[in-house]
Every structure is written in C-alpha cells, then in structure tokens.
Please model this.
Amino acid sequence: MKQGSHVILKKSLEEGKAKGFQVKIRGKIHYGLVVRKQEKFYAYRNECRHLSITLDLNDEQFFNAEGTHLQCQMHGATYEIENGECIAGPCVGSRLERLEIQIEENRLVVQFKEESK
Ligand code: FES
Model:
C-alpha cells in the first residue's frame, strides 16, 4: 500500500472553516479536506459518497448554507462534520472516508492511503 501525507499549519485553518488539499501518490492526485470545529480537527477524503467527485467541486465551498454540515455542491448530500455520516441527500447512511491526522504543536499531518477506499 502506498501512502502520502499533507501538512497544514494549524493557524492557516480558522475555527469553523475547511480547507481542501491534494496528495499525489504514484502520479495520481487524491483529494482531501480538513475541518476545524470547536478546536478539533477532522479530515476526510474529499469525495462524495453519491458520485465519485469532490464535495466542493474544487471551489472550497464545503458547507451547507448554515455552516453546520459538510455538503456536496452537486446534489446536496449533507454530512456530519464529526463522523462523516451522510444524514440527508442521495447517499443517506453512508460515510465520508476518514483520514488519519497527526496533531503536532503547530501543524497537522494528514495521512492518505492510496488503497484505503
Ligand atoms: S454527487 Fe454528491 S450528492 Fe450527488
């Protein structure tokens, strides 16, 4: 299994915001996202469970209008930030794929596994 990682400075991610990133493994680009909520960090593969596309369609719009949930911009699948569960939309009950995060003093290191799907 091949792995990649992505480093994000904690201070670059404000409370209540999300950031997308890319990791290249064996020439293929994989998309991820990190969310900061109530001083906790959550990372997921940036791929909707309905269709294999990024939630934000690559424009960094990850949330619903209220800012309470992650939401796919294509058909509105709505996901819990804390566990990635889809609670509304075409793929209710499925979950975003969680990525492991190492939290260090000033930065986050998100681990990405090529074959973790
Ligand atoms: S592709 Fe995400 S809800 Fe349809």
Remarks:
- The first strand starts at residue 3 and ends at 9.
- The chain has a mean pLDDT of 94.
- Residues 48, 50-51, 53, 72, 74-77, 89-90 surround FE2/S2 (inorganic) cluster (CB under 6 Å).
